[in-house]
Design goal:
It is a single chain. With 144 residues, this protein is mainly beta. It is built from one helix and seven strands, in the order αβββββββ. The relative contact order is 0.21. The model has no long low-confidence stretch (mean pLDDT 80).
């Protein structure tokens, strides 16, 4: 007959927690999982009208994000702060990334940089980059 054992999520994390605790004691810093830069996930969609970029930024306020477009390089930078209301030592496991982030995407030459828009909703930043009018495909009539 098989023995059923109750799952204890903290039992498997013991060594991991001990290494992080020793790291904090030796260096006086936060655990590696709570510090340092990270790269948020990014999707790029192309249409005939332009490009849409979707950046996952849960837990990041729009005021903490800076978007720039220079020489056709779109840069998204900001910071996701660690929990303000809790101490890092109170956590048994931290898998989410915190700290500064930076993403840069090179866009094609023919975009309208003056018409770029950005919207932040439900933890997703959506950036719309329209094509320049002269680069959009147009139909050419054939005269007979």
């Amino acid at each position: 007959m098989a023995t059923i054992t109750r799952f204890d999520p903290f039992r498997t994390a013991g060594l991991h927690d001990e290494v992080e605790r020793m790291f904090r004691e030796v260096t006086g810093q936060d655990a590696p999982a709570t510090a340092g830069a990270f790269s948020p996930a990014l999707d790029v969609r192309e249409t005939t009208d332009g490009y849409a970029l979707f950046v996952e930024l849960p837990g990041v306020d729009a005021e903490q994000v800076e978007i720039t477009l220079e020489e056709n390089v779109l840069t998204i930078a900001g910071e996701r702060p660690f929990y303000d209301e809790f101490e890092p030592d109170e956590f048994r496991r931290v898998e989410r990334r915190f700290g500064r982030f930076h993403r840069a995407v090179r866009l094609p030459d023919r975009v309208d940089s003056s018409a770029v828009t950005a919207r932040h909703r439900d933890g997703v930043l959506r950036i719309e980059v329209p094509r320049a009018e002269e680069s959009k495909p147009r139909r050419i009539a054939i005269e007979s």
